[in-house]
Amino acid sequence: MNEHYISDPDLDRPGEACGVFGIIGPDIDAARLTYFGLFALQHRGQESAGIAVSDRDNLTVYKDLGLVAQVFDESILAGLPGGLAIGHTRYSTTGSNSWENSQPVFRHLDTNGIALAHNGNLTNTSALAEMLGPLAATTDSELMTEAIGRAMQEGTVTLEDALVVALPSFEGAFTLTVMDTSTLVGVRDPRGFRPLCLGRLQDSWVLASETAALDILGAEFIRQVAPGEMVIIDHEGPRSRFPFDEEDTHLCIFEFVYFARPDSTLLGETIQTTRREMGRRLAIQAPVAADITVPVPESGIPAAQGFAEVSGVPYTDGLVKNRYVGRTFIEPAQAIRERGIRMKLNAMPGVVGGKRVVLVDDSIVRGSTTKQLVAMVREAGATEVHLRISSPPYRWPCFYGMDTGDRSTLLAADRDVVDIASELDVDTLVYLDLENLIQATGSHADAFCTACLSGSYPTEVPVTDNKFLLERLP
């Protein structure tokens, strides 16, 4: 398949965190159930999709570039029998977008095999590559799979015990689903940067990045996997081990702002409820005289609803989203590329024309799309545009699983709000402050990683590394 995709034209969004999934049970079509689970996690990564499945004798992996529905069809799923499977949807944060870097990663062993799906980003990739020696790996996920495979070859017989040996050598953000021919394992790093939940479907057990993937199967949500926990599931059911030293937890705050689906649940609340509360707090923090509240679809909708509810400025849909725009093989002409937002969103003059508009979005990263969007709303006849963002300024790059590039690409890195408002050509601009954002989640500040907003990183970070690090090593 062609490896040169064009990104979704929604350029101001941070690169999604990948989606991982796993299921094990008696007499189930694990690959088909994984397909549906990945379908529910498609928003977390659109570059590639893959499934690894075991019939207890053989472990088979099928993966390719593209969306879940593009990679798999009935004939492919029919050729993936077995009652144990893991799956992955990818957005690249280490390694380029190529077939070789798609997941699950597979490693053949003499009497077994292992497959791994990873959400997150290691911060010790260089050190791990040096420790493992010469290896044709271009992603941190491949390095982890190699380390686990070597532990099994060096006398550690079971996947469980090999993970206990290998996991402490990984640093940074890693939520994993791992399997061999008979066992499914879910892992969260000790700081819990990325989520993972455990569910039950009759006699089967399910692991997934988000509860929405349980819902699509009709599975019961059991609990969130704890930071630092390893959940081992075989024919006897799940059990837990904790192979890491205890650390303070730091769940990524952007799971609430943007990544997670609104119907997923985190920390006891639906994401929809939390985002709506962000909008309420934004209305209290930054009231404005206006005629209509307009969301930027889709992730800006709950915050706009909350803003309208508190402010009394009526909510209305002033932007139409083309739901069929995704990744494409077609390179657009320069004129279209420069105004690529029109491929995805269109303003309605009959709604915004002659109106003072409060435009509500969840975040601004690079600013290019937001600038085009504001221009579009003005061209549709808005007399004023008041931009309200339901998160603080995005000022610092992420090293834990978001692809936001270096700091020089971030609109708010070295600008104050007045300068940003001028750059975007809005009448007023207000970001939700960090305290209000955290309070909207109903949790404490020390529960989250806010590094991209505050510059306070909970670990040492490899500031000189980039996503193509392993591809450039000799």
Word description of this protein:
It is a single chain. With 474 residues, this protein is of the alpha+beta class. The chain folds into two domains: 19-250, Aminohydrolase, N-terminal nucleophile (Ntn) domain (Glutamine Phosphoribosylpyrophosphate, subunit 1, domain 1, 4-Layer Sandwich), CATH 3.60.20.10; 270-442, Rossmann fold. The chain is built from 17 helices and 23 strands. The strands form six sheets. The chain has a seven-stranded antiparallel beta sheet. Helix 14 links the parallel strand 21 (384-389) and strand 22. The two termini are 27 Å apart.
Question: How do the helices and strands line up, and which of them pair or pack?
Answer:
Blueprint: E1 19-24, H1 30-40, E2 48-54, E3 59-65, H2 68-71, H3 74-78, E4 84-90, E5 105-108, E6 113-122, H4 125-132, H5 140-153, H6 159-166, E7 172-179, E8 184-188, E9 197-201, E10 204-208, H7 212-215, E11 220-224, E12 230-234, E13 237-241, E14 251-252, H8 254-259, E15 265-266, E16 269-270, H9 271-285, E17 292-295, H10 301-311, E18 319-321, H11 334-338, E19 345-347, H12 349-352, E20 356-361, H13 368-379, E21 384-389, H14 417-424, E22 428-431, H15 434-441, E23 448-449, H16 451-454, H17 469-472
